[in-house]
Design brief:
Elements (H helix, E strand, L loop, with lengths): L15 H47 L3 H10 L6 H10 L7 H10 L5 H15 L3 H7 L7 H13 L3 H12 L10 H9 L5 H13 L3 H7 L5 H15 L15 H17 L1 H14 L4 H6 L8 H6 L1
Helix pairs in contact: 1-2, 1-3, 3-5, 4-5, 5-7, 6-7, 7-8, 7-9, 10-11, 10-12, 12-13, 13-14
């Protein structure tokens, strides 16, 4: 028998158990990696298949093939986007669904944003179809939007609660942006009932310009009282071209409207030339009787010229 010795004097056969263990361990690792790789491939294939079925289900729904749609939807019960299939299905037939159907959906998918989205869509459908009694019965303040609020007030007006509706309509009016078309009906009823006063008209016109919403201000100018049309025009002109403030002869009035126009124009001018705005302001306060508040608030406290401005 021939013995083979290692450099350390040990028989090489002494290392065989250890080598066998290492070979087995290495083989196990390779097998595990292969299994993980195959699992990843299988998972990717499954997700790809689910995505394809999801897209096909939507195609069936849009084509009106609801039986085929429901078959695929059921196959995708564990798919992450399954709630969107349910939402797409129910919203295509909103007018056929009762409040119980909507409530069941909201409970089933309460953990998703679709629960509230469906309620909003269903209420919008009721308002659009003029189902005012049902609208008030099922209205949910937790999903309120500007459109749904206007539908709510319209529903009140249509069901004999006009006084309650009009008491809240002023809030819909007094904003510096255009309200949705769905607000037109209640706003018209509110105006027709004589609730739109001269002051409310001017206030919204003014805050629209302050917000730089010139298109809304232009639209609102048609509602201004006759006495306010000239200062309203001057205010729009000064807003667009603040250097107009140098023509002091245009702003001679001592009334509150003229003072407001002057302050707005000076503030606009101060954005591009604060020094010139301050010089003009010192001239204007000699002409008009501005209050202490008007004097100190024309420049904001964060403006570099505020100290000089407040002392003017």
């Amino acid at each position: 028998m021939i013995n083979i010795f290692m450099p350390d004097g040990k028989d090489c056969c002494d290392n065989l158990p250890r080598r066998g263990f290492l070979i087995t361990l290495f083989a196990g690792i390779i097998l595990l990696l292969l299994c993980l790789g195959f699992s990843a491939i299988t998972l990717a294939d499954t997700r790809f298949d689910q995505r394809a079925k999801y897209q096909q289900a939507l195609k069936y729904l849009r084509a009106g093939q609801r039986t085929r749609f429901l078959k695929l939807k059921n196959e995708l019960a564990d798919y992450a986007l399954e709630p969107y299939l349910a939402y797409s299905d129910i919203t295509r037939r909103l007018s056929r669904h009762s409040y119980a159907d909507i409530l069941a959906f909201r409970e089933l998918y309460a953990a998703t944003p679709l629960a509230d989205a469906l309620m909003q869509s269903w209420l919008h459908s009721l308002g659009k179809r003029g189902k005012w009694q049902d609208y008030l019965k099922y209205f949910d303040p937790s999903v309120r939007t500007a459109i749904l609020t206007c539908y709510e007030l319209t529903a009140m007006f249509k069901t004999g609660r006009s006084e309650e509706a009009f008491a809240r309509t002023e809030d819909i009016w007094m904003v510096d942006y255009s309200q949705p078309d769905e607000c037109d009906a209640i706003l018209k009823a509110w105006r027709d009932a004589g609730n739109l006063t001269r002051e409310l008209t001017w206030q919204r016109f003014s805050i629209s310009l302050h917000a730089n919403n010139t298109s809304l201000a232009s639209y609102l100018s048609r509602y201004l009282d006759f006495e306010d049309r000239e200062p309203g025009l001057l205010m729009r002109q000064a807003h667009r071209r603040p250097t107009l403030m140098k023509r002091k002869s245009l702003f001679k009035g001592a009334d509150s409207r003229t003072r407001e126009v002057i302050i707005h124009g000076i503030r606009r001018l101060a954005r591009s030339d604060a020094n010139q705005a301050l010089d003009l302001w010192q001239d204007y306060i000699q002409i008009n009787n501005f209050s202490e508040t008007e004097r100190t608030d024309t420049f904001t406290r964060g403006d570099p010229q505020y100290g000089r401005w407040a002392r003017a």
